[in-house]
Amino acid sequence: MKTSERGIGLIKQFEGLELDAYQDIAGIWTIGYGHTGRDVKPGTRITEAEAEALLKKDLKSREDAVQKLTSEPLNQNEFDALVSFIYNVGAGAFQGSTARKRLNKGDRLGAAEALTWWNKATVGGVLREVLGLTRRRAAEKALFLTPTSPPAVVDPKNLQENSRAPAVESPPRRGSVAQSRTVQGAAVAGGAGVAATTIGRDSAQELDQLETDIQSGEVGEHGGVAQSEESDVETGELVAMPDRPTKHEVHAVQAQVQFALLILIILSVLFIIFARVDDWMKYKR
Questions:
Q1: What distance in Å separates the CA atoms of residue 251 and residue 197, rounded to the nearest whole number?
Q2: Which of 111, 148, 134 is nearest to 6 (CA)?
Q3: What is the tens place of the pLDDT at every residue in 155-164?
Q4: Using CA atoms, how far apart are residues 202 and 190, in angstroms rounded to an integer?
Q5: CB proximity list for 132: less than 8 A, separation 6 or greater
Q6: Which has more pLDDT, 267 or 253?
């Protein structure tokens, strides 16, 4: 697939035509329609025909990158938008971008949204939003989502903002810390730990009280166990005595507590893992 005239027009619109070498907003020597490289030096001058030839040459590598790095079938508008995007940010940046990951999973709307995150550049050593990049990303997103059937015109002129700077992806943050899946996972893990500790402590106290009642010969509110009858030595009368739990019964209770604790911990760990994956896939952080 080749870039259409519409796609080339979009690139020309935002790159602009400069026949004399200049340094762009990021300090990179540039000429023609955003052409950079070792052949661009201070004092270099070209003709408009040479600028067209350089553009066609530069488009070839970007077109190859789009076809190599995407696994979903693309229509002409989607292809053109991605060529324009890579023309600005580079094939390496697109390869690791959230836009590409979403597109290759079939999430076209999510991919188009992720394109707009690349609207910042390092200017004077400071990373900041560049209005020209914001407008370029918006135009690429609109083109990407435009059906190929109806004709459309992209004709805003005389852009005053520089949109040639190498862009940096800046994904949005969640609205608040409480919305973070990781924070929610940590809260669940903490709650599970508290619950498990409470269960273990209550069980231990209950067993300890039961042992105390048995040794003292009393059955209080913690007793509640079956009783047996033994003959009193002095009177010869039958006296009710609580049944003493066997070691097997004690170990069974302890095993149940430990099992419940283990289940809570496993569920908490799984939730946190899910939260981290969810954050990475949706918010890339």
A1: 18
A2: 148
A3: 555 554 556 6
A4: 18
A5: 14, 159, 161, 162, 163, 164, 165
A6: 267
Q: Which fold, 5-171?
A: Lysozyme (1.10.530)
Q: Which residue has the tokens 């914001």?
A: 134
Q: Which residue has the tokens 């979903």?
A: 72
Q: Which residues fall within 8 angstroms of residue 174, CB to CB, at 6 or more apart?
A: 180, 283
Average pLDDT over residues 211-222: 58
Rounded average pLDDT over 226-241: 54
d(CA 24, CA 210): 82
- For 223, other C-beta atoms within 10 Å of its C-beta total 14
Within 13 Å, how many C-alpha atoms sit on residue 271's CB side? 19
Does residue 66 have a pLDDT over 80?
yes
Which residue from 43, 48, 40, 92 is spatially nearest to 69, judged by alpha carbons?
Answer: 92
What residues act catalytically? Answer: 15
Q: Can you spell out the DSSP letters for 67-114?
A: HHH--S---HHHHHHHHHHHHHH-HHHHHTSHHHHHHTTT-HHHHHHH
Task: Give, for 20, the enclosing helix (H) or strand (E).
Answer: strand 18-23
What are the structural domain ranges in the chain?
Answer: 5-171, 178-283
Across the chain, what does the average pLDDT equal?
A: 78
Helix axis angle, 247-283 to 181-216, nearest 10°? 170
pTM confidence score:
0.57
Q: Which residue has the higher pLDDT, 226 or 62?
A: 62
Mean pLDDT of 8-18: 93
